């Protein structure tokens, strides 16, 4: 399955350079259906550039703090879990939990089609 998600410019660039390897989201209804080997089409909301990634693993956590304590900060693309509250409320975090989406950048769009099993 291919999912579409939007990203701010900085995280988009970090993923493209393969610095950021874990995308962090709420584990809401949209993300509960993600599976390993699914694909995500990321759109940079500033430049409208598109990038495809493959989901290589999924990590479920109760909150952002637990997720940040689990991973090496260099793979997350931001310095602390408090930064996540710019995007999500503590109420949403408590309601849904959080998801670490481990991703691999696909260099070409056609790899999504050719690599599907």
Structure in a nutshell:
With 117 residues, the chain is of the alpha+beta class. It contains five helices and five strands; from the N terminus they run βαβαββααβα. A hairpin with a 5-residue loop joins β3 and β4.
How would you describe this protein?
β3 and β4 (50-61) form a beta hairpin. This protein has helices at 9-16, 29-32, 64-70, 90-96, 110-114; strands at residues 2-7, 22-26, 39-44, 50-61, 98-106. It has a five-stranded mixed sheet. With 117 residues, it is of the alpha+beta class. 26% of the residues lie in helices and 32% in strands. It has five helices and five strands; from the N terminus they run βαβαββααβα.
Task: Jot down its keywords.
117 residues; alpha+beta; 5 helices; 5 strands; globular
Low-confidence stretches: 110-117
What is the CA-based Rg, rounded?
A: 14 Å
> Would you tell me the structural class of the helices and strands?
alpha+beta
Fraction of residues in H or I helices = 25-40%
The rounded distance between the terminal residues' Cα atoms is 11 Å
What is the average of the pLDDT values? 91
- Overall morphology: globular
Q: Helix and strand succession?
A: EHEHEEHHEH
Q: What order do the strands of the largest sheet run in, or round the barrel if closed?
A: 1-3-4-5-2
Query: Number of helical runs?
Result: 5
What is the number of beta strands? 5
Q: Beta-strand level of the residues, as a percent range? A: 25-35%
Report on the biggest sheet: 5 strands, mixed
């Amino acid at each position: 399955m291919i999912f579409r998600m939007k990203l701010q410019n900085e995280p988009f660039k970090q993923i493209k350079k393969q610095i950021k390897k874990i995308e962090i989201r709420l584990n809401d209804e949209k993300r509960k259906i993600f599976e390993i080997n699914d694909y995500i089409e990321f759109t940079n909301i500033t430049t409208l550039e598109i990038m495809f990634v493959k989901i290589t693993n999924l990590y479920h956590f109760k909150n952002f703090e637990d997720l940040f304590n689990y991973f090496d900060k260099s793979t997350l693309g931001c310095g602390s879990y408090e930064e996540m509250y710019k995007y999500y409320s503590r109420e949403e975090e408590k309601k849904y939990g959080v998801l670490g989406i481990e991703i691999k950048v696909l260099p070409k769009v056609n790899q999504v089609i050719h690599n599907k099993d």
